[in-house]
Write the structure tokens for this entry.
Amino acid sequence: MLRYVVNRVLLAIPTLIGVAVVTFFMLRVVPGDIVEIKLRGDGGNVSREVIEQERERLGLNKPLVIQFVDWMKGLVTLDLGRSMWTGNPVSEEIGSRLELSLQVAVMAAVIAVLIAIPLGTLSALYRDTAVDYVIRIVTIAGLAVPSFWLGMLIILGLLWAFNWLPPLTYTPFYVDPIANLSQLIWPALAVGYRYSAVVARMVRSSIVEVMREDYIRTARAKGVFERLVVARHAMKNAMLPAITVIGLEFAFLIGGLVVTEQVFNLNGIGRLFVQAVSRNDFMLIQSLVMLIAVVFILVNLVVDLLYAALDPRIRYR
Amino acid sequence: MRQAGTAQPTPRSGDPAAHSDDRFLLEVQDLHVHFETSRGVVRAVEGISYAIRAGEIVALVGESGCGKSVSALSIMRLLSKPAGRIVGGRILFEGRDLLGLSDEEMRAIRGREIAMIFQEPMTSLNPVMSIGRQLMEPLQIHLGMSGEEARERAKELLGLVGITDAERRLDQYPHQFSGGMRQRVMIAIGLACNPKLIIADEPTTALDVTIQAQILELMRDLSRRLNIALLVITHNLGIVARYAHRVNVMYAARIVEEGTAEEIFGAPRHPYTIGLLRSVPRLDRPRSEKLETIEGLPPNLLDPPKTCRFAPRCPYRIANCDIDPSLFDTEHPEHRSACHRWRELASLAGAPRTVPAEAAERALADETLPALAVEGLTKHFEVSAKGFAGGKAVVRAVEDVSFSIAPGTTLGLVGESGCGKTTVGRLILRLEEATSGRIAFEGRDLAGASGAELKRLRTRIQVIFQDPFSSLNPRMTVGQIIAEPMRVHGIADKRRAGERVAELLTQVGLYPYMAERYPHQLSGGQRQRVGIARALAMNPSFIVCDEPVSALDVSIQGQIINLLEELQERLGLTYLFIAHDLAVVRHISHRVVVMYLGRVMEIADREELYAKPLHPYTRALLDAAPVPDPVIERTRAPRALKGELPSPLNPPQGCVFHTRCPLAIDACRAGVPALEELRPNHFVACIRAKESLGRNEACSGPAPS
């Protein structure tokens, strides 16, 4: 088991190197760089020398390969470099926002799972009845409604009902849990609705499938209570495909919340990403892409380990 | 609601045993089951009645789609909802009508009073629950046992069904058990609460013959010892002959004949039963030249004929058969038949046509160049463990196999699952590359052939697959499927191809207009005919038939076997016939190779092999194969072959069969026995057979080349 995890982590290294190479060179293929945006962005007239100086300061005048090697050296020593725009260490820029994004993602995932599993199960068990139709309409709506729009509705509703607007600054959970939760629960709900819709549809279809399996018939033939047939025999089998979807959606939420963060005035990874891209802040973009790649790899590893925990046929060596 | 007056069973007045209903444990009375489909209502079961006494073994026999499984699921009230509905009849269990019970009352009976064992041991156990928990579940639910008590009892139950090392086995999961072992677990679950009745739906269909014999023996033994009634549902008449007291034969949603096993097998009174008995090749009778078959197909239950349902396929049809017959009493009590002519049938049908095989067998002379010769064929698969440092394991699928096939003859390749027979077929087709060994086709080396040479040889070697359902592309018409090889090899333009397709369809007993149809519009037998037509399209001289009839119903099986033989006669084809059914192999083959765990155990001409088998494995196989004759079956000793098939990952040292062999001695473990010619043209790989045959008879020689 431990060996399997080590194996998987080692196998992630070539993937990450690939991601690094592609991101690094793709960024530099695109014309324009941060210096031009920074110094000439407002239409100001800046002399060539100043621009060259700035480029030299940021190391942008070195050959590409050297730049890449420098970046790699940094990564290996866990030094992500400094933002080319603010000059702050990249790890700081990301760190402060990752906390927020991670919390929203976790809350959204919890909300989604809490809603999706009962809804999907009910929908499957009462297939083609009124219950099923209602649930299917609710979940289809979840897929169709953009979460930022839902977010705007939530804000309007809060304003109308409680005359309350989301605060402008982020309060960490350990500083004031109540303030923190009351701020983040709304974006988590807005995102979690869509998330739950995706998962509920997966749960529904996999339970429908599992309920047709021979071992469900065996369980019934043994005289197992129908409740237990579902809870004990069907659920564990049906959860396997659902877990994949839960994992992938979760990974997507880290960094995928651009518009929702905007709506709720949250300074998260998504917003940072947009800023970095619009400023051509190469160092920051590179690190963010790497971060998201790492998140995907980790989530997939966790999903695979959960699979092994649930399904005895899968044993990792 | 019901079709007026159709096949109401005659009152049981003529039957002294039936007067008191309370003598029956289970009584199914006039059961009707409907399935709603998009194309209309399928009347899956129409007015069937049967009964089982305590401790009795009753069989329900019929082909796929005749309603036998549906009637069993109806007893348990486990029909798939909402499509299946019981629309009429009564199911009395100890006098209580199961159809009138509430869901909760019915649940309390399932697993407690009536247990059920299903066909597919591989899918019938929950893959993510330990065997122990699955066994303990009914004990805790029905008998209110504590976890500890249930575990003790579960251990006992595993012992009862012959699984050793119960303590450890309880914590294992289904995938760690073989098919036969899983079926034992299913039986243990069935036995858990001491039920009065066990319904076994095709309990051994998915298992190998030697394992099938073990399971059947176990079930009969338990039924006797614990006085449990068994309702066995099967399509295999052989199984029924040995074990059942009474037999009900179903056809197209009705029971067409019922009676004791002796009566049904000895003096069948319905043309369908007679047809079923005669269309299976039999090991207990001399081989007949041609199988008798039931022509045609069973009726569509969406719109069954108003006449006798069997009339369209019946060879003894008369005008009176337009009237749907009821179940008539015959002269023998408890024997009833739904045939107007049951009285005359005995004389009409006569003795089974056993046209003895011609004395002049096709010459298997050595001087002719064999159509195909295989020498030292070996195939190892490497299975790697995951990850960086995972070791590699080798599956020895085929190990040093040699045989040759004379032109225009059939070589049968028999063995149980995992013996490597299918891999041999795939190696010959070059769908797999051999690890070592030579394959010579018409004198040319196939293994070394490449490019254009291989492409040319491929047109001469074709294949027919086992599963007619999955081996035809569902999105292509029959015409396109058959024409595809011609198109691939670019030998026919569109118009010529069309003509050839029509010709081929006629050749395999289909109609040219069927070229426009899609595979799902055909029956299983018709699809297999399309598969044969596709194989014939390139005018091959050699066809690998990989279990071509094992997925088909018995009445269809005979038709396909006859077709293959006719084509061989007419086109001079050579077949490699891969199968697990010994009777079918005997019928069609001229020479037979018996394989076990990748190695050849015995090679001999058909008559020689079946009359004088020398290898203990061949004997065990022949012994385990059931024969549809209760008189023979009941006098046979219990089948001896013990144990499970070893894993090909880790085959036994020395003779691979020694772990299960009743004759094994220490020397068997020492070395792999060579394949030696112990009798003329009869090769055996067994030191014990060599010993017992004596020196004077044995003329040892090298393996055939």
Notes: The first helix of chain B runs from residue 68 to 76. The interface with chain A takes residues 76, 78, 80, 103, 107-112, 115-116, 118, 120, 123-130, 137-138, 141-142, 173, 175, 186, 189, 192, 385-390 of chain B (CB under 8 Å). The first strand of chain B starts at residue 24 and ends at 37. Residues 406 and 452 of chain B are 26 Å apart (CA to CA).
